[in-house]
Hints:
Elements: E1 35-40, H1 47-57, E2 62-67, H2 70-76, H3 84-92, E3 99-102, H4 110-115, E4 120-124, H5 138-142, E5 146-149, H6 157-165, H7 178-188, H8 207-213, E6 224-230, H9 237-247, E7 253-259, H10 262-269, H11 278-286, E8 293-296, H12 304-309, H13 330-339, H14 341-378
Parallel strand pairs: 1-2, 1-4, 2-3, 4-5, 6-7, 7-8
Helix pairs in contact: 6-7
Amino acid sequence: MIKNGHHAANDQGSEAGAKPGDSACSPEKRKRVVRLWCDGCYDMVHYGHSNQLRQAKAMGDYLIVGVHTDAEISKHKGPPVFTQAERYKMVRAIKWVDDIVEGAPYVTTLETLDKYNCDFCVHGDDITLTVDGKDTYAEVKREGRYRECKRTQGVSTTDLVGRMLLMTKAHHSNIDNPDYQQHTDNFGKGPKGHSPWTGVSQFLQTSQKIIQFASGKEPQPGDTIIYVAGAFDLFHIGHVDFLEMVYKQAERPYVIVGLHFDQEVNRYKGKNYPIMNIHERTLSVLACRYVSEVVIGAPYAVGKDLLDHFKEPKKRGIFRTVDSGNGLTTDDIVQRIIENRLQFEARNQKKEAKEMAVIEAMRRREEEEQSEAAAQVAQ
Length: 379
């Protein structure tokens, strides 16, 4: 198996946060604050990004996230789907993030870690390459200030783009569909093979994953319980702006988000919606710092039973309309993808080709090391 990174001790991040006492850097075992650094494009922020940041935060105390500019992403990868301003705000809204650095350099250096007083940086077990095919974390790996966490299987920006271009109602339940496979090939496969870091795999929801994302806090006396409902598909900056405005409606808000089942969303939105299935949308919403709880499969119409379940005041006049000031919709995002389809296809094929070159180099190095070891044994 080919792994990115060089530290055997990094297994502590394999699924960080599962058992609070397991980490060697738990607060009980040290006297100072451990500051962590993560960086990336964070384009089309999804629960995979959130899970990376959740795992990173579990390795220390204070998490700083560097987000690259549009110009840097275009130089090294290709055009981003979201603007840098949108991406900055999306990352700020993830509940495990303590601070962000706007315009972070694409290559992570010791200078960057020292500038923000970070002990080490954390990245997933895939690989990030510069425009000339170099590992962006090579320097910090070499100096022992790099840790890994597990990449979340079943989601990637590549996959989501492919879903948006495949206009079928069954895309989220039939990953073996030949049309879907053709689209994933266009977006995640280069001319010389298939990279394990760019490929598409199926997402499997578990109860443990929901527990890791959920706050686990129940409403307390004095909290104002606020209920909102919808699809919250491709959880994006428009949703974040809305939920932030909802959160500001009370001094002590407890925001509950009702998520409609896939069939219900498809009934009122049609086309190929929802892009993300109910399990994926649940994690995306739970990762938002403005959300306290999620109702999975909420009814389209809010009835008395639902209000009673959350001990809402049994009175009329409890409905409010909130203007988020952001008119961005999931349809708008799909339109951005469709308009730039060829650019995104070229971007992902270029990324795939660079990754395959790295894989081949790693394999050759492993074979050389094995040959040298065998020769020494023979002597």
